[in-house]
Amino acid sequence: MRIGAIEAGGTKFICGIGNEQGVIQDRVSFPTERPERTLANVIAYFKDKQVEAIGIGSFGPLNIDPESPYYGYITSTPKPGWGNYPLLNTLKNEFDVPYGWDTDVNAAAYGEAIWGAARGLDSCVYYTVGTGIGVGVYSEGKLIHGLVHPEGGHVLTRRHPQDEFAGHCPYHRDCLEGMAAGPAIEARWGRKGSELPADHPAWEIEAFYIGQAVSSVILMLSPKKVILGGGVMHQEQLFPLIRKEVLHNLNGYVQSDQLLAQIDAYIVPPGLGDNAGLAGALALGLKAVEQA
Amino acid sequence: MRIGAIEAGGTKFICGIGNEQGVIQDRVSFPTERPERTLANVIAYFKDKQVEAIGIGSFGPLNIDPESPYYGYITSTPKPGWGNYPLLNTLKNEFDVPYGWDTDVNAAAYGEAIWGAARGLDSCVYYTVGTGIGVGVYSEGKLIHGLVHPEGGHVLTRRHPQDEFAGHCPYHRDCLEGMAAGPAIEARWGRKGSELPADHPAWEIEAFYIGQAVSSVILMLSPKKVILGGGVMHQEQLFPLIRKEVLHNLNGYVQSDQLLAQIDAYIVPPGLGDNAGLAGALALGLKAVEQA
Fold first, then answer.
1. Global ipTM
2. Considering CB atoms only, which of A145, A218, A221 is closest to B140?
């Protein structure tokens, strides 16, 4: 099979072709400019590729309610030109194939459940920690949508006792994203996270916030795997710090060996690495073929 | 049809008989004593009732993993005699019928989705705020189980700026349950909540904590209805305070009319009132018949 995949990000669009084994055979990347221009690039890429379906994991917020007249739109983003933009319909007008359509993080969660770190499990939660913080939820074998879709990057958190940073979220100031996304790290320390040494106190504070969110999601949803991806999570020293924080927060309350004895295999980086998003979009495309 | 229903609570067991319309035709209640004695009462009640199935919503933590040898057990409760108690098997040995088995709060969420405030919706979250705080999650038409099952009463919360109460949870001290369950209200104010007037400052503080949890669950799971039940929620003045808190916390970020324009119909008491738990157990019993 030849399935098209689009990871539609706020910074770049990644397009690719893959098959039913999750192998990505080709990929290209464009900067995210105004939508007309970006979509012209996407359409040109797929023009002669003869794909059987296209899966799209997109930055949001999105409309993913098939009953809505605005299904397939990017909705209230402040990104110039992209607010209320009919991304899905623009592609449908060009390529008459089945489409998969979900948030970038739901796509990544799904890809990880099919081919990655949560392979064979019927639930996982996928966090991306980068320019923003997003959460995808796969539970009882289904991606969670609901009223809108999960926006778990914006939950309120307790403040680290030594942290006086005001917070960086324009909506909630010191929510999770406002305290722990890449721009918050940079604003707090005056340098990008990628320039801070691995033993910098920044990472303990970062792990405090991410660990708090992960503890809450374990209590709220009881996922069988927690996957932490995105640029900030390239700082591998964060993983042991986050696991320690989670065990500290839960304090033995959730009686599961996977937490108490095997947490190194429970809170993990994406099995698909930086392909998680594109492979997830591919998986959405495959699901669309099956359901067509 | 004649379906048996058991709401197995830490204080009392409610048993009843109902039909496929959700009508409860008979109900009795026993105090929760040692398990042998309590189950003897339950078994005596159902002895000549000739039920076609039995649904059980139980206090926990529980084992609800059908693959586990401990499926049907109450697991790590400190309640004397009930730790590692095979509740489901004890009944199976007496009555050879299909069984539904889930947490009390998942049962209530399910009952509300079938016959109550979330009727016709494919998702809702059910909170009980009483002696403890529990959360049931119904999402994409399924009850959420996962690694163990949701235990959302124990999420960490921000502290109300005027609240100096230390917290009442033996595991997490000042988690949601530690700050906002009935015993926390009583310990904070020296009187039971039911004895405090409706304009007492206790309720603003209570709404602060419950509202914070509800905001997080909306961001994390995007449920189509949030249902707040349990003894503490009999204080009806809490509902407008909680709705206000939720809107304040979300600050317009989640663009949904159901939140922004119709929150009075979005955060609601159980449609089934104090029958939510028993009707939920009945619904689990009906599902067991369908799946048998």
1. 0.96
2. A145
